[in-house]
């Protein structure tokens, strides 16, 4: 796995945590693939549509949520396909 790919993916994942980006459904939508699925620690799966809805609700809050990304790793799961895994605190 090339370090430059891992760094690029980490940068994109961090962009999704930026409150300015999170307030823009257009910017988040551009960062997420249409087939995006996130699995929360609770076991709930969120697709792109649901993530955009959740972020709209979050954007209306007075105090934006701040998160830290830790234990980032990139795993090759097929030819030309990788999975990013990490925890949010």
Overview of this protein structure:
Helix content is 40%, strand content 27%. The two termini are 26 Å apart. The mean pLDDT is 91. It is globular. The strands form two sheets. A two-stranded antiparallel sheet has the order 1-2. Strands 3-4 form a two-stranded antiparallel sheet. It is α+β, with helices and mostly antiparallel strands and 89 residues long. The longest helix has 13 residues, at 3-15.
Give a quick precis of the structure.
This protein has 89 residues and is an alpha+beta fold. The protein has helices at 3-15, 19-22, 25-31, 48-59; strands spanning 37-39, 45-47, 69-78, 81-88.
Strands, helices and their partners?
Elements: H1 3-15, H2 19-22, H3 25-31, E1 37-39, E2 45-47, H4 48-59, E3 69-78, E4 81-88
Antiparallel strand pairs: 1-2, 3-4
Order of strands, widest sheet: 1-2
Terminal residue distance: 26 Å
- Biggest β-sheet strands, sense, barrel: 2 strands, antiparallel
- Average pLDDT number: 91
Main structural class? alpha+beta
Share of β-strand residues? 25-35%
Radius of gyration: 14 Å
User: What does the overall shape look like?
Assistant: globular
Low-confidence stretches: none
Instruction: Please bin the fraction of helical residues.
Output: 40-55%
How many distinct helices? 4
- In total, the number of strands is 4
Order of helices and strands: HHHEEHEE
